[in-house]
Every structure is written in C-alpha cells, then in structure tokens.
Design a protein that fits this description.
The protein is an alpha/beta fold. Helices cover about 40% and strands about 10% of the residues. The radius of gyration is 20 Å and the shape is globular.
Amino acid sequence: MEKSLDRKLKEIHADPHGSRAFILADAKDADMAHGLAAPGKSPEQHSAEGRFRTLAEYRQLMRDVTRQGLVDIMLMSASSNELLTIEERLFDNSAVTPAARANDTTDIFVVRGGRYTGEPSRPFRTATIDHIQCGKADCDPAERALGADLGLYSMTFNNNLERDRETLEHYRDFRLEAERKGFRHFLEVFDPNVSGAVEPDQLGGFINDHIARTLAGVTNAGRPIFLKIAYHGPRHMEALARYAPDLVPGILGGAAGTTYDAFYQLWEARKYGARAALYGRKINNAEHQLAFVEFLRLLADGQIEPDDAVRAYHGTLQKMDIKPTRPLEKDLELTETSSGYAATSAATRRNVAVDGIREISVFDEELTDEQISRLSTLEKSDYHMRRRDRIFGKS
C-alpha cells in the first residue's frame, strides 16, 4: 500500500508553493525521554497524584491512532517499533509510515531527580539503524525492510563551538551510515537547552541559519526528508519556507497547553509555510486522542478554523460523555507553552526561562504595517500591548 507520507512529499516537491499537502505525525517516542511518565497520566485517577499509563496502554494508543489512519507517521522508540512494526506487522496494510527515534541527546534525559536537561546537550544514540530496520545488530540486505525505514535525528545547538562541532560530527556520521543502509531520516533541531545561549530576538534566526548552513553541504542522497523545529512565529517560518521550500519545514508541538494552543499553532504555522507538524504531548494529554487527531487532520487540510475546531472537539467530548480538562471558555484561550522536552504543560510567559528553555515571540520586535495587517485580532492586541510595555514599561 502506498504510504501517505510518500505521496505528500511527491506533491510538495512537485509544487512547493501551491501544494496543500500537509504531513501530520503522532510522536509517541517519549519513552526515550521521560521514563515511566512517558505514556502520560491514566484517565483513571485513583489518588490526588493519579497514575501513569502502562507501556502496554501506551502502545495500544499507537495501534489505535495508526488504525484510525489520519496521521501520516507514527513515531516510536526502537523497542515499540520492534513490537508493532517487525513482530505484529501493524503497518503492512496501512497508509501510515512507521518511524523510530534514531538518537536521544542528553537534553531529553528527563528523569525524576535528574539535572541533565540543565546541562548543554551532548549527542548520544541508544538505538542503531540496524535495530530499527530489523531488530538486531546486523541486518542482511533482505531484512532491512522488516522494520521502519525512517528515523528522527535530533540536534541541539547551544552557541558553543566545541559542543556544536561535536553535534555536527555525530550528525555527519549518522547521515553516512544511514545513506549506506537505505535509511531515511527527518531532522529535528531543538532550541538551545540552556538559558542565555542566544539572545531571544535572535533565536529564530539562529535556528534557521544553522539549518541552512548545516544542510548546504549535504547532497540529496543524505538530506532529511523534512524538518521538525520549534515554531518561532510567522516571520521565521515564512523566511525558512521561502529560502528553500524543498526543506519541507515542520513544527514540533511542545508542551500540552490548551486545545486552542495546539489547534491555533498548527493553523498559523501552516498559513506561513509549514508543511508538517509532529505532536506528542498535545495528543497524548488530550481527553480523547482519536477525536483530537481528527480535528488536527481537519486543520492540517485547511477544512476548519481553530476556534471552531475547539468548539467541535468539546461537542464531541460531550457526546462521548467525557468531561473535558478545562471548560470551553478556558480551552479557547491562547496561552504559551514551551517547546523543550523538559517543559511542563503549564503556561509560560515569553522571554522567561522555563526549565532551561527560553521562549520568544515575534511580537517582541517591531513589525511593519504589512506584517501587522496579517495578524489576527488576538495577535494584534497582544502585539500592541507588548509594544506599549516595551516603550513605557509595565504598569
């Protein structure tokens, strides 16, 4: 069966500016970051603290979302990929593409009591390409098609010469191995995981320039099939998409936030050139994951507006007799959520360090009249309030 990912990539490359194709991924690879907390809180709250889902329950959600058929990619850990892709053959008759996290840099070592996420990221790989492809250390050529042929490779730049050079060397070695073994990848570039690494008003440009500079030396045989980055607002997404649409820029979801946060982020990023979205915690923390994914798909295909999607989602929950986490009026609020793995779902304010991740906003700099005219009413209000505070100070 043709994979929807492959079809959409062909459409995007054939008509980079006119194609309406949009790639949607469910990122259920958090067991390579959060340990026991990775599957998320169980809907059954047995105590004030509640309990986490089991790994088996987490994997059942992977099966459910895959069988729903609305996402294009199911991103998993290598061990989940072994079970679902290699042993169960879940994806054989599915349009969904299986993928596995190909590396786990130290800034995603999010363990209780740990302090790793506050240290500058270092490259590290638990999984090997062979284990992702066939479940063992050395694959025979015919065995490489048994598992996933796609992986997520992640880099974090911290504006430190030696650390960033080390990061790039590891990525080069991975690319060469992947090319030899017929393994595709998409590239994730995280924001710096230590505060103060880059001035907030330079962060979007810092990430875009690193992507452009890094991939300039990579020929088609070794290039990522698309990108996964934090969304830094319309200006930086538009600039990256205009510079080289064949890079296929995509966004990561970040911490959960409100339903409107998730829906509006996807809608706006798509408007300004994003062609992919990978949501992990935003899907995993939803009251009903399949319903949530259904509305993400409608937004990705340009069939609904974000506020209407939130209302319709709440209507679906009501029909299912599921109590929403927030009342509708609260769930329609636009808050701010951090993009880092170490971030919680709590709303954060821009330009404040949260768990080592600095949030910035396109509204923290002067916009032209043309740019202002393209903002929504809510964005215009936010922009003018922030501009007033910059000039006159906060009252």
